[in-house]
Amino acid sequence: MSNNRASVLKRGSKNRGIKMMLLTKENLKALPPIGSQDAKGMEAIAHVKLFTPDSSWTWYLTEYDPKTGEAFGLVDGLEEELGYISIPELMTVRGKMGLPVERDRGWAPRRLGDCYKVKQ
Predict the structure, then answer these.
(1) Residue 7 contacts by C-beta under 8 Å, 6 or more apart in sequence?
(2) 112 domain residue, yes or no
(3) At 5, which helix (H) or strand (E)?
């Protein structure tokens, strides 16, 4: 396992004294390669949901490149937008109370279109 991939799998949280895997082995198997869902549009499947428990940011991952640690998906923060997401960078992100990004353990894969919120 490369150093980059190992760092994506585990990171510690000093604030809470636990370790959470942002991407499990099952997630890595389920996430298709970058670009493989391009033609699907909003029918692409979001396999993983990451979020800040003490803020309003959420990342829905549809594709992943294990060599670079880069994912693609929907980012719901200040605005909703599709884009590339650096998983190693997310591992350094902290919310307002200093809590790290977490993976939604109860997430079931669903259409990307179902992840969009209507903001007005």
Answers:
(1) 69, 88, 91
(2) no
(3) helix 3-9
Q: Quickly count: other Cβ atoms within 10 Å of residue 13's Cβ.
A: 15
CB atoms within 10 A of CB 90: 19
Which residue has tokens 């699907």? Answer: 40
Q: Is 50 a member of any domain?
A: yes
What's this model's pTM, rounded to 2 decimal places? Answer: 0.82
Torsional sign, CA 95, 101, 102, 107: positive
The phi and psi torsions of 76 (rounded to 5 degrees) equal: -115, 100
**Three-class secondary structure of residue 69 per DSSP:** coil
80 located within any domain: yes
**What is the domain extent for residue 73?**
3-106
Residues ≥6 apart with Cβ < 8 Å to 16 = 99
Tens digits of residue pLDDT in 38-66: 999 999 999 999 999 999 999 999 999 99
